[in-house]
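Quick log. Single chain, no ligands specified.
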Amino acid sequence: MSKMYKAHETAVNEKVAIKLIKSEITVDNITIERFRIEFIFARKIRQKNICQMYDLNTDEGACYITMEYFSDQNLKGLIRHSGRLAVEERRSGDSTLHSRIVR
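-> predicted structure:
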């Protein structure tokens, strides 16, 4: 549904993450609306281990969210490195798993 990119925001001289909705589904108004709702709710979250949402934009038909960039390991990287998570780790996401992926 979307793809993540790392970019450099020249106005503030910082790395940012960009979540770009795939072009083949940008014509679907329901998907665009879900993307907008995701942004609205995610922007309200304030927690040290969740990236901050900055802005929702469209440019030449592309819809994207700019957000805080985390250079630390993400869940996908953790699974690649450590292998499949045990059932106990998946259930206790706020303890064992959380402590392995937070910065």
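The first strand starts at residue 2 and ends at 9.
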